[in-house]
Amino acid sequence: MNTVPKTIWHVGGEDIRFRIPLLLALRDRGFNVGAVGSENGDAFAKYQIPYFQYTLEREINPLADIQARTQIFNLFSKYKPDVVHGFDTKPAMITPIIGMKAKIPGRVRTINGMGYIFSSNSPLALTLRPIYRHLQKQASAAAGITVFQNIDDRAYFRKHQMVKDGCDDLVLGSGIDIEQLIKNRPNPEQLAVVRQELGLEGQLVVTMIARLVVAKGVREYLDAARIVCQKMPNVKFILIGPFSSEGRQAIPIKEVQQQAEFVSYLGVRNDITTLLSLSDIFVLPSYREGMSRVLLEAGAMQLPLITTNTPGCKDIVRDGWNGLLVPPRNAKALATAILQLLKSPDQRILMGTRSEMHVRENFSLQKVADSYTNIYYRVLGLSHSEQLQLNKSRSEVNYL
């Protein structure tokens, strides 16, 4: 029986580095791993994970899309991984189709959310929906398994026959390495230095981390900050994340600067664990998610969470238990929820404790890695006895 380790490649975009913990967990389970993305590969070199860069644009650009497809096809044809697994909107659509053309036996894709097209009722979004359904149906036909991160997206795909019967699965998120987050938490002296640098001394801190686009609820966060600060002293709102080039979806920098009296915009930061450790409440008023990684990370850091009652957000927060749910696009309701938690330190502590427990029990890295291990076995058509043999070989290698 062939017990050579199977090679798994994850294909994504500009934030493919966030798959590194999952790739490392898969490597621990006996797989060879690699990644294909549009960012530089510095983060992967540290862990000796083979990485290949290609050209990808978020916006609709036929010439750039053809170039990306060609680059990926050439990589698949040259290296022949056993499984290619696409994440994010474009990679999840093109990876299985290109994988099929390149004769890759295992083709998996994860739907990380349905984004603007389904969170907006604008004429453009409504026009794009039928096109999106058609493209997703084609991608599902080429994939062995389509993975969903929340039950709402899965139900939508099934209702509109965008996925083949028996060829889907549900995996809640991409896995949070809770122990690593705790390990990276700075000591009190280090926190005090950062707190002073950011002018947060004596302040209650409300934090949001997201790309600065409309669908993440950035405008609602800015408006809620103004409402809260006008009613309650000693509160500091911070906003972290990159500006976007996504056309009308992008929030202009002037719009953020106009609220500088109430919100400190910190740009892109590499010390997210530190900033979460300084925070009292974490907020994400997104219109829709797949399964919000940043909400999960904030929960793992024992923060009470305020988010919207929408797919990919409501799966993480139980209203009144580990946080509060508010309607999307409603800055007043968001401000009311923030004020409620700011005025109740005991409630914040209790909810934060529950958040960590919830993430640990349902969204841990080990649980997600086990789920994907089974999916890769399944898409490769391995029998139960072959899986047991691979597991045995893996255990022997780990022992040695």
Automatic annotation (TrEMBL):
Residues 195-348 form the Glycosyl transferase family domain. It comes from the Bacteria. One of its GO terms (molecular function) is glycosyltransferase activity. InterPro entries: Glyco_trans_1, Glyco_trans_4-like_N. Residues 20-140 form the Glycosyltransferase subfamily 4-like N-terminal domain. PANTHER family: GLYCOSYLTRANSFERASE, SPORE COAT PROTEIN SA. This is Glycosyltransferase family 4 protein. It comes from Dendronalium phyllosphericum CENA369.
